[in-house]
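Moderator note: this is an archived Q&A kept for reference. The question asked for a predicted structure of one protein chain; the sequence and the answer are reproduced below.
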Amino acid sequence: MNIKLVCAIGVCLFVGKIYSQTKTVDELLNQIEQNNTELKAYQSYIEGQNLQNKSGNNLPDPQLSGYYLPFGEHQSNDYTEFEISQSFEFPTVYAARSKWNTLKAEQLQIIVGKKRQEVLLKAKQGIINLYILQKQKNIEANRKQQSQQVYQQMQELFNKEQVGILDLNKAKVVWIQEQFIVEQLQAEIQNQITALQTLNGEESLELDNLQLEIPLELQTMEALWSEKLAKDPKLLELQANEAAASQNIQLEKNKILPNIALGYNYQGVNGNNYSGVYGGLSIPLWSSKNKVKAAQANYEYQQSSSQVAKQLLYAALQQEYNQYQLLLDKYTDYQNTIGNLNSEDLFFKAYSLGEYSFLEYYMEVQFYRDATDKMLQMEKELQLLQAQLLIHQL
């Protein structure tokens, strides 16, 4: 009884350990997002740009000037004067520029989102490639084992002089080819793991036992487009550009208002001294010329550019969506036809029972192998297309 209990506990711990080491795609992407060195560097760059934009809304430095005039012909005390002043733009300019800086910060954050999306899409594509490679390796490992068994059987038949050397050599060539394919797939798997670890900041990832969801039906084209309009950084950037350009018009209009200077002035001469408040205005008659018109022209350009960019993005999405639906239909047909037949195993059993010669077995099984490989390739293309279509969800 105790032995059974210990064995049961051991099995549970072993299974639990396996599942604890298996991470979902979302968990892997979150880990890569946290560790990716390019994203960290880009975030630091954006923070620096935000600080630089904010510094443009600071007050000018205060000015201190003084005069001491001891030279010349005079009988009275020397003339002394000093003045301290602070100049600044009209107060509404700072409020308008602050709103503009906020919109610029949103633009920069969206740019970070685009870079993040780019990195995570590359990572997801790498995970998909790795998953398909692992799946293909398992298939080829089974084929390699079958090819070895066929070659061993052919060797026995050759020793009994029941088959010729040509059939034996064909069986050996097939076995060698399968060995090479498995070794090549193992090298490709290792290369893909290395690429993913590079994206993860050179830190290791738990990539064993990857599981991806089978591509499913997507929502309607219009629903997908509406979702992208609300979430996709490429489309959000267009809106942010328009908003920043519109606010820039308000900023330039406020800059037409006079600049102000306030300060304190002291004068001392003939034993007397005078002091009081200093004030001044600087009217931007020339420096503001055509700037409002330029800002309005830029806003109109941003509107037109956004409209054209949205049309191009919608057309590209429509093309990818149609391609996905067509490929999904073909994949479904393949899966319904050969997905659950285990045709290769059935032909191998029939060959083992002597129902097929080697040539007949190889020709029949090769047909189903090609179909299986085609279905696996379609699954890969579907996964990659789905990742591209749903990039806004990353």
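Archived answer notes: Strands lie at 63-69, 79-88, 259-269, 272-282.
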